[in-house]
Each structure stands twice: as structure tokens, then as C-alpha cells.
Fold this protein.
Amino acid sequence: MKKVLFIYRIDQADPNNQGIVLKLKGQMEAFRSLGWSAERVIQDGSKILCADQVIHTMSGHSRWYDQWRWYDRLEKVTHQSYNFVIIRYGISTAAKSRWIKKYKSLHPKVQIIWDMPTYPYTHEWSGVSGKIILAIDRQYRSQALPHIDAILHSGREEELWGVPTIHFPNGISADAVPLRKAKTHQGLRLIAVGKWRHWHGLDRLVHGMIHDRELVESHDIHLTIIGDGPALQDLRAVIAHHDWLQPRIKLRGSLNGPALDREFDQADIAIGTLGLHRKGVTINSSLKHREYAMRGIPLILSSEDSDFDTALRFVRYVPTDDSDIRIEELIKFYDSTGIISGDQIRSFAVAQLSWKSRICHILAALSAEGSS
């Protein structure tokens, strides 16, 4: 039986990583449905797990050190053989480059693949500390690159740093999220879910509500924001400055399971990523868009997403700039969505966005590269 190992250097115990964990689970299930064995290395609080078994526990006083030496803690994984090792790309470190080089030397037939969640990513790091981190990344990335066989990437680039790319937009599993059970209510209800940072562009919607106050009030528009993140600090200050806006915007923090499902049941339109242009990203492959579609809810977004054609009736693109989101356009979009049901949106997601179809594409591409 062929075997694949996923290495995700994230903490699955952090609710803000729920979407990434679902992505990993979906990919593993897709491989298994194709007859593969699929295992993962992931962090769970203070523990590092491989195949759900603890292989290292980080002590409280040295956790910062353990984070930089994270890959040095994978010694128990090093001597296990896999056909593919898929590593979610993060900042390169000496430990990471060492592990990749050692694993490739022990298993020369393995195909080591980087999964690039965002490119370019340099705009995510700023200030003096950001420059230092990116310098470290460049140095140790160059040491790892000779041992990387392919890079999964949602953009148009055919190669990154001299390594061939495989087009790989995000996907979703049908059983990952339920179909929204739309509730009857007055007005227009918006929902936005994310781990909020400046490049998600949520401020564009809030400022649009402020600019079009009359429409917001006359159409009884409310926005529910799910999740946490540094961008919310500035938004809280903006909301607090406008008394009339405070009862119309709810910040619910991180939610999952039935609590999150209930929020979607009350919503009419979901808010996608609106600011990727702020970090130079032109192709959008946000996990949230796929979740929205699988839940059967119309969505708005900015920047091209190859899975969501502009002709789709449940999708509305807004300008790729920092302009306010116009509430009048949101209302028109909402009025137009009455002709499409949640079941129809979900059917599209099941047919077009499944992880199984994504994994089959990867296997075909790698097979073609291996035979060329």
C-alpha cells in the first residue's frame, strides 16, 4: 500500500486553526478513498503527534526554543518510509532544512512536496523583526530547495524558486460542514468567518456600512463576525466610535460545531476575503469560500478565485482595491439570490470542490513528471 505523510506545523488545539485542520483531514480522507495510507504530524497544545501518537512534549519554559527546533523533534518519523511527504509551507528554519535533507538522503525515492498556502507571503511580515524572519527564511529555504520535488500552489506560476508547481486550489469535504438551514427573519443578515488580518479586508465592509448608514438602517442590515485576529482591534475602535453601528455588528469570537452552524442558519450572505491585493496576491483560494459554498450560502469576494466563475449566480465579485463595499450592491445581490437554493449551491460544491478531485489531479501531475 502506498503511503503519504502530511507535516503541518500548526496547533490543532487552537480554534483559529479549525479551517486548516479541516483541510488536512479532507486531504487525508481523499487519499484513503483512493487506497492510500495517510498519516500526519501535527501539534496539539504542548504535544507533537505523529499518527495521533505523542512523539514529543514541549515544556513550558522552553516552548519558544522548541518552536524553532520543531523539526528536530521528528526523529521518530525520520526512519519511517513514505511515498510522498507533503509539508505545509511555513517560514524555513535550520531545523526544517536539516530534517528535509536528512529524510531525502535516507529515502531517496520519496517525493517531498511543499504545500504553499499563500504566495507571495512577504507582505505578511513587517518591521525589523519581519525583515529578520524573512532573511532567515531565504537562507534556509535555499538549503531545502534541492530536495523538494514539487510545490502545490493556487496561483499561475509554473515554478517557484526553480521548483515546478502543481495547480492546487483549496477543496472541501462534503461531510465537513452541514447545509445551512435558512431561518426566516426580517432584514439582511451578513456573516464573516476568519482568522482576521489586514489583508482579509473586513474593514472595507464596515466602512461601507458607515458610508451607507441610511441603507443599513432602512434595510435592517446586521453583520456577525466569527473568529479572532489582530485586525479586529482596529475594527472594534471604529465600531465603538459609531454608537448607531454597535447593535448592528456582533463580534462572536471563535465558534465551531453547532454554535457556528446556528450562526449560518441566521445568515443570508457570507463575506469572503476582500483584501488579498494588500499583500500582492492576485489569485484567491480561501478555505472560507469553499465552506460557504458547501453550506449553501451566497458569498461576496474580491480577487479572482478560479473555482468561482463570475457567471455563477450565487457569487458576487467586488473591486480589487481598498474602496468601501457599497451596501446598495449588496442589497441588489441579495435580491437576485432568491432564484437559487442552498441545495443548488451545495450541489455545485460537492461536484466541483471536493478534495478527492484535487488529490487525483496531484497524483496525475506527479506521475507525469516522474515519467518525463
Summary: The chain has a mean pLDDT of 92. Residues 127-144 form the longest helix (18 residues). The chain has two domains: 3-171+354-371, 188-352.
